[in-house]
Amino acid sequence: PTQLQSDMEVWIAFFTRSLVKYGKIGNRGGIMKKIALTALISSALTLCVAYSVSPAKEITRKVVLENARVQVTERIMPPGGVRSPYIRPSDQVIVFVSHATYERTDPKTGEKIIRERKAGHVIWHERGENAPKLVNVGKDPLHSLVIALK
Predict the structure, then answer these.
(1) Euclidean distance between CA atoms 124 and 20, whole angstroms
(2) Nearest-10 Cα torsion for 22, 26, 27, 32
(3) Average pLDDT, integer, range 58-82
(4) φ and ψ at residue 141, rounded to 5 degrees
(5) Is 125 helix (H, G, I), strand (E, B) or coil?
(6) Which of 129, 121, 128, 127 is nearest to 145 (CA)?
(7) Which of 27, 30, 113, 117 is the most interior residue, by most CB within 10 Å?
(8) Are 133 and 107 contacting, i.e. CB atoms less than 8 angstroms apart?
(9) DSSP string, 102-123
(10) C-alpha span between 7 and 5 (Å, rounded)
């Protein structure tokens, strides 16, 4: 469950306990009060579901070429998308297909740096490097090709 769902569940439980405690519903309450409470809880749960279905911020990856020597992966990171840190399993050439603005968090120091890359910019990474956490802070998707050498 999302944080919003958890918060709404806590709020609903508190609200329901308060109504029961102060005698607004329960054995003495009227049927209309119970129906109103049911409608309120149903509406709140509907809001939880609606807010939890936010636009996907996941990175899409598609292998566009693979042979005995390379694997080329098209990677698209939407605005707000996050790439978790990892250890690079191979030497990599990364080609930025579109302009990119992203926040890089250094895996050792935690230092955050905003980087910009122009479309066509190429960078190199070696096998075994600590790949940092990246967050697309730009307005547009970060579109790149990752060419992993085998």
Answers:
(1) 64
(2) 110
(3) 96
(4) -60, 145
(5) strand
(6) 121
(7) 117
(8) yes
(9) EEEE-TTT--EEEEEE-TT-EE
(10) 5
Q: Output the CA–CA distances (angstroms, integers) from residue 80 to 38, 58, 61, 71, in the order listed.
A: 36, 9, 16, 26
The tokens for 140 are: 């547009």
Q: Look at residue 53 in the predicted model and tell me its pLDDT.
A: 46
Q: Which of 91, 90, 1 is nearest to 45 (CA)?
A: 1
Q: Which residues contact 48 (CB under 8 A, 6 or more apart)?
A: 2, 4, 5, 8, 9
Q: Which amino acid is at 55?
A: P
Strand partners, 104: 113, 134
pLDDT of residue 39: 58
Q: How far is CA 63 from CA 8, 11, 58, 74, 114, in A?
A: 40, 45, 16, 6, 28
Instruction: Locate 1 and state its tokens.
Output: 């469950």
Residue 57 pLDDT level (bands cut at 50, 70, 90):
confident
Residue (of 85, 86, 79) closest to 57 by Cα position: 79
Rounded to 5 degrees, what angle do the CA atoms 72, 77, 80 make? Answer: 165
| 97 touches 124 (CB < 8 A) | no
